[in-house]
Amino acid sequence: MNQKSVGGGLASGSIWSIVDNLAQQAISFVIFAVLARFLAPDAFGLLTVAHLFILFTRLVVFDAIAMPVIRAGLPDDRFYSWVFTCCALAGLLLAALMFFSAGLVSSLYRAPELKAVLQGMSLSVLFFGLMRAYEARLVRNMMFRQLAVRSIGSVMTGGVVGIALAAGGWGAMSLVVQQVAASGLALALVVAQSRWLPRIVFDRALNRKYWHDIRQVGLTGILNFANTNGDSLLVSVFLGPYATGLYNLAKRVTSAVYLVIASSMQKVALPVFSDAGSDLAAMGRGYLKILGITLFCVAPLLCFQAVLAEPLVAAVFGAKWLPAAPVVSALALLYLLSSIVHLNDYLFFAVGKNRLPVRLGIAQLILATALAVSCYRFGLLGMSLSFCGAYLLVFPLSQILLNRELGLNARQVWYALAPPLVGSTFLVLGLAAYAWLVPPGISNVTLVAGGVLIACLLYPFMVVVTGWQIRSVNASWHGLLLSAMRLGRAR
Predict the structure, then answer these.
(1) pLDDT digits over 58-75, tens only?
(2) On the chain, which terminus has fewer CB atoms closer than 10 Å, C or N?
């Protein structure tokens, strides 16, 4: 395969990866919003508890076993069959564990209805185990279009089934059938697309050769699971399914903005940091560009959610979800900080400081757990604020260490952050005044629509005005914005 075809494959793969990510986020959110109209928070809380177990198995077990396929030089069908055998056996054992421990877990949660949910979702664990080798084979062969078609088709089909059952009064089991149908269809599609049937292969030599990699990826998966899903786990343990359902909604609303924009910014950041090489000054300039653009996109959306959380939740999901509105406001702050911290972690890896993000992540996890244990008595909002507090404590340390690595000073960072921060501050004040002045009786949809209009006019105006007033060492902020946009188009 020549260099040109490899480059074309990588470009096509990147496009399909972005399409896959954006489409899944959009479709999943629409399906979730429709289901929320039919189901109570308890139903989503029960599913979240079961989904946490599935996420743990995927990150810690299945991904760890499949990782050698991505790293191997020239994997053959026997090697893929070995991965399939290991994942299938692990999936079978974990599905059985989930099924037979469902009664014990439901008694610990004091939620008898959780038993049927866990037992039903155990099928998804098995399906994911059977699927993982096929996914690894498609990724290794850069067949991202097939993966995108598989993901979009299965999510849409499962969503239609779930909505139909929820409308028919199936309650939490409609969500179970939705998830099982989506994972089962995903398995069928990936098998059909691969046109490959594995054999059962046991190989002690391969077990010994890749055990170290499997263990390392598994340990990393545990840390990633704890950092991304530890908050939901703590809420479920201390506050039960109802509060978990409310927290899950708030998290999905706020994290959707972060996930879409952050993933896009990382794809832009990769060529910027690669071009900089070992030139720390160039890398610092690239970092400030990406940081400014990330906040420019993330900050207004999260500020809008924070200020108008109550009418937004009522308009989109229904009045029964209003207790989640204060949590949406709290998590908006968390994901605003998270967008900066994760970009900083990306830079630490780029400059060779691989252990720093891990240590900072462990510190943030310990702080979040300690604060949550102390604050759970104050309810869901108290726990949500405790998670924000952990990020507030870790963020300054992350920024100071990164500035030191790149040779940046506080003034340079301020030049990058000032326009979106000033614009967001005025946006928050403007939206708060608007919500206070709006006469009683106006519909939530109208209130949200008016807020959108204010945000579209006020935020860009304040960003441009602030950018005109601030000059950095090399260029104005709006100059950095324009150059970064030109870079994105060129790429």
Answers:
(1) 989 998 888 776 666 666
(2) N
